[in-house]
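Worked Example 4.2. Consider the chain below.
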Amino acid sequence: MLYEELADALRRALDEAAFPVGARLPGVRRLAMLHGVSISTVMRALERLEAEGRIEGRARAGFFVLGAPQRVRTAGAAGTGAAALDAPRMVTTQSVTLDLLQASRAARFGQLGVAMPDPGFLPLKALQRSFRQTRRWQSGETAAYAFPPGILPLREQIAKRLARAGCTAGPDRVQITSGAQEALSLCLRVLAQPGDVIAVESPTYYGLLQCLHTLGLKAIEVPTDRDRGISIPALRMALEQWPVRACVLVPNHGNPVGHAMSEADKRELAALLDESGTPLVEDDVYGDFGHDNPRPRTLQSLLRRSEWFLVGSASKSVSAGLRLGWLVAPAARRRELDYLQYTQTTGASTLDQYALADYLARGGHDRHLRKVRLAYAELTRRMRAKLLAEFPQGTLINVPAGGYLLWVTGPPALDAMALHARAIAEGIAIFPGPLFSASGRFASSFRLNAAVAWTDALDGALSRLAELAHEQLELSRSALATTST
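Applying the procedure from the previous section yields the following structure tokens:
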């Protein structure tokens, strides 16, 4: 039925926060025109969503989006039995991720789809000096294995930097890994067994979902606001309803939406985790990239009782080619983590560890970060303005508090997977929204990387991407109009 198809499209838009809580939906006539259906079809779809507690009709004012707590109460009153959160589920949508990454690498504008800065935004000359120095003075050490937890000079540098963010753990609790992905995997392996439930933000980093998939873990997706971060009431509901084994969260400049939790929200979230005794795995990969404010403190620094793990990486700020990350873990977990890493990879690259330690010890990294933070703020602003000006009406794009990622949500009828297929054929890469969800949500959303040098060619590629979005929506409207007649 047409009204059911429209209701599904509007549900997706609500799930993806295309319309913020409290916002007024487009008028009935506007929705009818956008979707090529009759007014009666629109009314039946809106009535269905109102019965589910997703929206509220107000006399002579229109329909408004309800928040999560209101949805629970309204759904219960309506007797539908609908829950605000889907049940935990196995991750099944990640098998195509590698294909998309490989396709992006071959594309002319492949950098738009991968969360990696252009080389011009990385301190490669300084890093090369450190490699030369390391080969000269550490030739004997770099020829040997660096068994877990990694070389002490680098662990000392990492601990010193993390202290500025509120993490006071010493170098004895720092473990050097082959990137943040290995760090996430190690944390999950010591915390959970196959079939256990892990709470994640929604949308969340697809690499985390790949870890969950590989380890046979279930994900409970918790709605995440573009500005404030994870919904604390929804997380509380998840912890009360299901046996959540751990929470994996990105409080500072999350991937893909770029949110930054306020200090007050962090304190409330920390209190909830302490109250429930739920372990925290905090991904702090983008913590150094705030646009305006001082480096935000970590969420773990506010915990008092819950077990916590902190994950970071040099990939985004120094070089992805280093493949170096780290995790900070409880002292009681140290031996178990060391052994797991040893059996998995033996340890991270020795030469790379010494070079990174030398680079950080020289003291130029903070100057580099100040420079790129300003650049990323300008590039995200410029790309966002470009897309909003040329993409179809109704497109929403986050205003990231840090980092260089844009989360683009088109009108409900936009199919991001199909848009990716059209765009990649023309050498333009995007990363579709369904890959940031365990259940394939965010069908009309996609992520873009703004840490790309602005050129006329890039400007033209973004314009072409907008044209492809318009073309797809026009075809969708034509198909709906044909069906309705």
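The chain has three domains: 2-78, 89-119+367-484, 143-363. The CA atoms of residues 41 and 327 lie 53 Å apart. Compare this with Example 4.1 before moving on.
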